[in-house]
Amino acid sequence: MYWKYGIAIEQEGLTGPAATNYIPVVKMYLSWLEQTEVGNLLFRAIAREILDAPGALLTKFKTPAQPGFPTRGVRIVPYLGGDCNAEEAGGEVSFSPGSFLGPCWRTMLRVTKNRGLYPQELLFHELVHALRDVSGYGNSLAPLSGGLVGYGDTEEFIAILVTNILMSDPTNKRADGLGLRRDHGKGKLHPWLSDSLDFYRSSRDTFKLIDEFCSENDWFAEKLSEIKTTFNPLTVYYNDQDKARETSRSVVALVRDLVM
Prior knowledge:
Helices cover 41% and strands 8% of the residues. By secondary structure, it is α/β, with parallel strands linked by helices. 45% of the residues are buried.
């Protein structure tokens, strides 16, 4: 079914109660995200990319992404590899939250060690990937190194960065409130990197990656920088690029790049 913002939800491969509940539960999580400033902005950014297309193209949610070219539509379908997980490819988000408030809620017992595991946070993370794909920029998959090695690649760095901004959004009443995610390993971001400026000390490449993101998804990044969250390195970037660049060249960033 078509939801809105150029996003469709389709139930494929599930049976029984899981099949019956899938679309209502995904809609519930999407509505929770829509109620936050950051989530609402992400949906509007996706819509800007997709709804510029002729109306007939909005039904083509299975069109694969090609490097440098946008897809037309985001599809959310079940992740059949197991509950409480998600992945994204070519504008298609595979997401399985479990049946209504079922098995995924047991993962809440782990959030003291692993951040970003709430079902709506997993979904949001993959929708950031989808935005990158539908805008034609979701192909930065070369492995990162040094202080950012734990993120895996640029796309994961961006998705984790933006999800951390969501998690620190005061309008996000359902955030776990236990700290920011460190990297793709899901541990806690070090306190001395959790400040919006100090985050640039993560690596000498931090400023470069954020600069590329802000250039490629400029409308979304600039609007995101204006949202008053407790963690927002994009605000620093737009307010004082020289300071952000200088911090990314700090001794701490150099040491992290050498020892990580």
